[in-house]
Amino acid sequence: MFYDHVNIEVRSGDGGNGAVSFRREKYIPNGGPDGGNGGRGGSVLIRADDKKNTLLDFRYKRKFWADHGEGGGKRNRNGKSAEPVVILVPPGTVIRDLETDRLVADLVSAGDEVVVAEGGTGGMGNAFFKNSVRQAPQFAKAGRSGVERRLSLELKLLADVALAGFPNAGKSTLLSVLTAATPKIAAYPFTTLEPQLGVLQYDHQTLVLADVPGLVEGAAEGAGMGIGFLRHIERSRLILHVIDAAAMDGRDPFEDYRVIRRELASYSSALSEREQWIVLTKSDAVDPSRILELKSQFGDTALLFVVSAVTHDGIDSLKQALVNAVPQMPKPALYDESELKKVFRFEEAPRYEIREDDGHLVVTGNWIRELVQSTNFTDRESLRFFERQIRHHGLYDELVQLGIKEGDTVYLAGSEFEWVF
Ligand SMILES: Nc1nc2c(ncn2[C@@H]2O[C@H](COP(=O)(O)OP(=O)(O)OP(=O)(O)O)[C@@H](O)[C@H]2O)c(=O)[nH]1
Ligand SMILES: [Mg+2]
């Protein structure tokens, strides 16, 4: 199977906690604070890589967790930062945030990359909090939490021209004579099971062509190979309808063309508005009079070419027309371009959430966890900072409104507290 769509989970590492420590040296009874800072948690990033062609790597591995930063140590030793996790994808991969369905990035060229989960920063050690009035800080800061995201990765091949048509129409054969590609060719339907790219070089120009599996009537409802692979046509500037002029099995080429157009339209209205040309192929296998008949049937529906992949009749004029016209055609927009230009920001998780559990109020969330871990509850100064934060961010008022009273038990980030404000 050609892997072109997958959902993954990423998580960046937490920052390491700052240390509380004091110098202890011989003959120096009260050394100053020397707790080091925590290291940064590992980030997760996604990079487009030329050597990748599919999303097959994600078949079994879909979770990518970066390591946490190391805690700070004594003697001003800073914790080590964790290495980033780099996920490699093929160029043409479109990334969306599954929570909001917003576009995160479109990694078009090899080397393009995006940070999808930023590692938490490390907390400062107590040495950092020393100042002229505070000689011996008994507290340090906890590292910031990492973040977790669910993302969709979708590969949309980067082809200028897409070949569309019924199974067995001769698409792969045409790709093999227009480009240097060597797709599998056979006299039965559904020979091509996965999209294939080929490069057309002609008249000092280069175009990328995509051959996709055959379409059939009802493909939008899942018949044949379905229409999921049409995502690889989405970026194409031109659709070439490859139509079997020989139509051995009693097909009507004009009706074939209409069916394919309908299936393209049911995939997306954008596709049905795309520039489309017609290629009547296998001309070597039919009477010239039949070709004339077909030509008049198609009339001026669209630009029409008659070719044979066997005798190469008409192939050069098709190549010439492609390299003349396609570079002038607009590149279709897969999304609102303004969506991409903005720097993508994931939605911030709320500072805290309050729920009631067994008659007690329970507060959870990264902010409260970091605050609790940063507080030394036996130190007056640290405790005062904790109280100020609780009031400043509205948690105090919210708890009072929910009816908390002196002496009640409240759980903050997993620790039990008695309400004595
Ligand atoms: N006589 C003649 N036969 C051709 C020509 N082009 C393709 N064929 C034959 O038509 C059959 C189908 O060709 P393919 O290129 O595999 O067709 P396809 O559209 O890729 O088919 P699927 O991948 O199954 O959708 C093969 O037996 C080819 O040899 C042509 O120009 N002339
Ligand atoms: Mg084929």
- Mean pLDDT across the residues is 89
Outline the biggest β-sheet: 6 strands, mixed
Strand % is 15-25%
Summarize the helix and strand pattern as letters.
Answer: EEEEEEEEEHEEEHHEHEHHEEHHHEE
The unique ligands bound to this protein are: guanosine-5'-triphosphate, magnesium ion
CATH architecture of the largest domain: 3-Layer(aba) Sandwich
Total tally of structural domains: 3
How would the blueprint of this fold be written?
Elements: E1 5-11, E2 44-48, E3 63-65, E4 85-89, E5 93-97, E6 103-107, E7 113-117, E8 148-155, E9 161-164, H1 171-178, E10 196-202, E11 205-211, E12 238-244, H2 253-267, H3 269-272, E13 275-281, H4 288-298, E14 304-306, H5 315-325, H6 337-341, E15 353-357, E16 360-364, H7 366-374, H8 380-392, H9 395-401, E17 409-412, E18 415-418
Parallel strand pairs: 1-3, 2-4, 9-11, 9-12, 12-13, 13-14, 16-17
Antiparallel strand pairs: 1-8, 2-7, 5-6, 5-8, 10-11, 15-16, 17-18
Summarize the structure.
With 421 residues, the chain is an alpha/beta fold. Helices cover 20% and strands 23% of the residues. The protein contains 9 helices and 18 strands.
Q: What would you note in describing this structure?
A:
- The protein is of the alpha/beta class.
- It folds into 3 domains: 1-155, Spo0b-associated Gtp-binding Protein, Chain: A (Distorted Sandwich); 161-333, 3-Layer(aba) Sandwich (Rossmann fold); 353-418, GTP-binding protein OBG, C-terminal domain (GMP Synthetase, Chain A, domain 3).
- The chain is 20% helix and 23% strand.
- The two termini are 62 Å apart.
- The model has no long low-confidence stretch (mean pLDDT 89).
- It binds guanosine-5'-triphosphate and magnesium ion.
- Guanosine-5'-triphosphate binds next to helix 1.
